[in-house]
Design brief:
globular, Rossmann fold, binds adenosine-5'-diphosphate, alpha/beta, four-stranded antiparallel beta sheet, six-stranded mixed beta sheet
């Protein structure tokens, strides 16, 4: 599997440039699409899942042209949008059976097996006879996951993966995804939460204001922030000053003020120690450096 995005642009009818000249190559494994709200992530996702057309550029998926061979491409896709809703009063299993049918699983017997398998996997087997649109938020999200995955898609696109999931459900979802990532498929996680992708993605892209700002491994992004992250103890007054001046990534109360971590181009303060960056630091460092440009 390979997705080749070349010179992709999206301009909405109101003149908003949501994507500007995006070039990306995405291969098997888990891929993180990271950026703040409004960066253009959903615009890109919606193009990839054929719900929206680009204003310019090209997308090829395994050699198929996204604009010309939409049918072929749809067969490969599983999409879990951010606001997954049910507009029917089907039972949970019936909804999944219907989704499997839509995704091209024609045999009733295979469909029933798959439905049971996925109800079990996402922990909804006991709720199979409940009306789908009356499930709790977390359960609906899990049903969304099952409908996106039931027909064994080659490309899975998940918008804001942890929205509406409690910690236990997050772990369950992550486990399902990491199990899937062992296969020859592409999983794209689009999120504004660094923690959603840190441990699992081999490669990531950073979008800001419609531009691709970084593409590479999480480690390569972290490398860029090395030498720019500090930990320091400060008094309450100094803390207020620093908040104005620096990007503070964590604040913990300490005996006589605060222990803070911050990212900055340069920083000098009594007792400050330089620390090893993590992905969260690197993301903040990267975003801050664009604001200054
Ligand atoms: P993200 O998913 O990263 O939050 P979006 O792709 O939703 O970003 O939005 C990117 C930009 O495009 C934002 O400024 C948003 O307001 C704008 N936008 C999104 N959808 C539309 C639309 N249908 N019409 C006009 N502008 C839009």
């Amino acid at each position: 599997m390979k997705i080749e995005i070349t010179g992709l642009n999206k301009v909405y009818s109101n003149g908003k440039h949501a994507l500007s000249d995006i070039n990306l190559s995405i291969e098997n494994g888990m891929f993180g699409l990271l950026g703040p709200n409004g960066a253009g992530k959903s615009s890109l996702m919606r193009i990839l899942v054929t719900l929206s057309t680009p204003s310019g550029g090209s997308v090829k998926i395994d050699g198929y042209d996204l604009m010309k061979e939409r049918g072929e491409i749809r067969k490969m896709l599983g999409y879990l949008p951010q606001d997954f809703r049910f507009f029917s009063n089907l039972k949970t299993w019936e909804f999944l059976d219907y989704a499997a049918g839509l995704a091209g699983l024609n045999s009733k017997i295979t469909r029933r097996q798959k439905v049971d398998e996925w109800l079990e996997k996402v922990g909804l087997f006991d709720a199979r006879d409940r009306q789908a649109n009356k499930l709790s938020g977390g359960m609906k999200r899990r049903l969304g996951i099952a409908q996106a995955l039931i027909a064994d898609p080659k490309i899975i696109i998940v918008d804001e993966p942890t929205t509406g999931l409690d910690p236990e459900e997050r772990i369950r979802f992550r486990n399902i995804l990491s199990e899937l990532s062992q296969k020859e498929i592409i999983i794209i996680l689009s999120t504004h939460i660094v923690g959603d992708i840190s441990s699992v993605c081999r490669d990531l892209a950073l979008l800001s204001n419609g531009f691709l700002k970084f593409n590479g491994s999480p480690e390569a992004l972290i490398d860029k922030a090395r030498g720019h992250v500090w930990q320091v103890q400060v008094s309450g007054i100094d803390y207020d000053l620093m908040k104005e001046k620096y990007a503070i990534t964590s604040t913990i109360p300490s005996a006589d003020g605060w222990e803070i971590q911050l990212v900055a181009e340069n920083f000098a303060y009594a007792g400050a120690i330089e620390i090893e960056p993590n992905l969260e630091h690197a993301y903040v460092y990267f975003m801050e450096s664009f604001i200054d440009q």
